[in-house]
Amino acid sequence: MATCETRTVPFVLVGAGGVGAALLEAIVGARALHKARYGIRFSALAVCDSSAAVSGADAAGGLSDAEIAALIAHKASGGKLASQSGAVVRPAEQDASVFLESLVDKYSKEAPDTIVVDCSATDATVPALLKAATTANMRAASANKKPFADSSFRNFRELCLAPTSPARVRYESSVGAGLPVIAALARVVSAHDAVTLISGSFSGTLGYAGESFSAVVGKAKELGYTEPDPRDDLGGVDVARKALILARTLGMALELSDVVVEPLYTPELAELSVPDFLAALPTLDAAFAAKVAAAAAEGKVLRYAANVRPPAADGTGGGSLKVGLVAVPASSPLGTLSGSDNLVEIYSQWYAATPLVLRGAGAGAGTTAAGVLSDMVELANTRG
Ligand SMILES: NC(=O)c1ccc[n+]([C@@H]2O[C@H](COP(=O)([O-])OP(=O)(O)OC[C@H]3O[C@@H](n4cnc5c(N)ncnc54)[C@H](OP(=O)(O)O)[C@@H]3O)[C@@H](O)[C@H]2O)c1
Fold first, then answer.
1. Angle at 162 between CA 320 and CA 140, to 5 degrees
2. How far apart are the C-alpha atoms of 164 and 143, rounded to whole Å?
3. Which residues share a beta bridge with 326?
4. pLDDT under 50: residue ranges of the chain
5. 242 an active-site residue?
6. Is ligand 1 within 6 A of the CB of residue 49?
7. CA angle 249, 197, 200 (to 5 degrees)
8. Residues 122, 144 contacting (CB under 8 angstroms)
């Protein structure tokens, strides 16, 4: 293979938890590939957690691979970056968003082609991402859905729907972890192929496999597939965020409050403690079993899904976004979904009878980090 000069691609990582650490490991592991195939070397100028930002001993060169390994080990042992030598600690009285924005501002001057990578789970990154999206030569990649869903459509438009956005901002992993859902949708949109429906199941936790509802939830919790409070999954808000990002990608000017969400538990169970909630779950079994039987009588199965219906091309109908239980044909892509996979069906003018389907593992730090790394490589290879 012909050798070419290796270009350094600087980045600032916000969030050093499961996904952030997996991303740093993946970057170090991919050094030889990135050099040989793309002629690039990612350089971590700074890594931040909720307490501080750390940069390498050689500030211009970024963190060395040894410093990255030590940082990952420190975070894995539960440490905060504020205790690392040379850390720039966020003052207690300073808002996290101000701290992050000023950090990005600093790098916009020192290394103008920096990629801001958001692997946090906070919406405090919105100003920093907006800065990256609107500053010449800067770019952003995010696994964090909050800036794209909890923040206003106006911010989303600035981040993702501007003519410069494809070259500047990637948010692939915010929806399907490593599944290239946004990339597929972007291709359909760019071909002016009118999307009529996006139907997706984004959480195996919420898939309903035919066992009693309480048994499915209990098992998922035992296996660590749910949040500590399973209502965080069963309430549907996380699915609503992902579906909203898809709807906004289509240009639908919706806010999170516009999403109609049907939680998988009744209002009486909302205020219980986690143990009491789990103990009360069997009270929902009979109603679920009845819905399963009614669907089965029609050759259908129940799925907890998000349905995004854009307004019709002729302007009729305002479009809608609903998250809840739906009965789908057992033989349809959603109907055959099992385990903890994610699945997204895209129906459009050209994918009318047979939808474009993306299916695969939809969670996990490794696959999510892989999606972010692909975004970073694409950004590094695209001139904005
Ligand atoms: N894990 C998955 O399967 C998956 C799949 C798809 C998408 N995602 C998304 O990926 C993101 C990261 O997930 P994760 O599992 O890695 O979460 P996590 O383990 O909780 O890590 C979150 C990280 O963000 C840091 N953080 C919080 N507030 C911050 C702030 N204001 N400034 C800088 N850093 C801040 C935390 O700092 P401390 O260490 O100080 O607490 C922590 O290091 C989330 O948005 C999640 O929704 C995850």
1. 100
2. 20
3. 303
4. 1, 205
5. yes
6. yes
7. 80
8. yes
Q: What is the pLDDT of residues 204-244, one digit of tens each?
A: 545 555 688 899 888 888 877 777 788 888 999 999 999 99
* Cβ-Cβ contacts under 8 Å for 243 (sequence gap 6 or more): 198, 200, 202, 259, 306, 307, 308, 321, 323
What is the torsion angle, in degrees rounded to the nearest 10, for the CA atoms of residue 32, residue 37, residue 39 and residue 40?
Answer: -60
Q: Whose CA is nearest to atom 44 of ligand 1?
A: 121
Structure tokens at 287: 């109603």
Options 3.40.50.720, 3.40.50.300, 1.10.510.10, 3.40.50.1100; CATH for 7-178+366-381 is 3.40.50.720
Tell how strand 139-142 and strand 115-118 pair up.
Answer: parallel
Q: Is 157 exposed, middle or buried (0-12, 13-18, 19+ CB in 10 A)?
A: middle
Cβ contact 144:121 at 8 Å: yes
From 3.50.50.60, 3.30.360.10, 3.20.20.70, 1.10.455.10, which CATH number describes the 192-359 domain? 3.30.360.10
**Nearest residue to 42 (alpha-carbon basis) of 78, 7, 3:** 7
16 C-beta closer than 6 A to ligand 1: yes
CA of 315 to the centre of ligand 1 (A): 40
d(CA 45, CA 53): 10
Q: Which residue in this structure is represented by tokens 């959480």?
A: 203
Domain locations in the chain as residue ranges: 7-178+366-381, 192-359
Percentage of residues in the chain having pLDDT higher than 70: 95
* 23, 48, 49, best to mutate for ligand 1 pocket (most atoms within 8 Å of CB): 49
The pLDDT value given to residue 95: 96
374's enclosing H/E stretch is: helix 365-381
pLDDT of residue 229: 85
Q: Is the CB of 12 under 6 A from ligand 1?
A: no
pLDDT of residue 383: 67
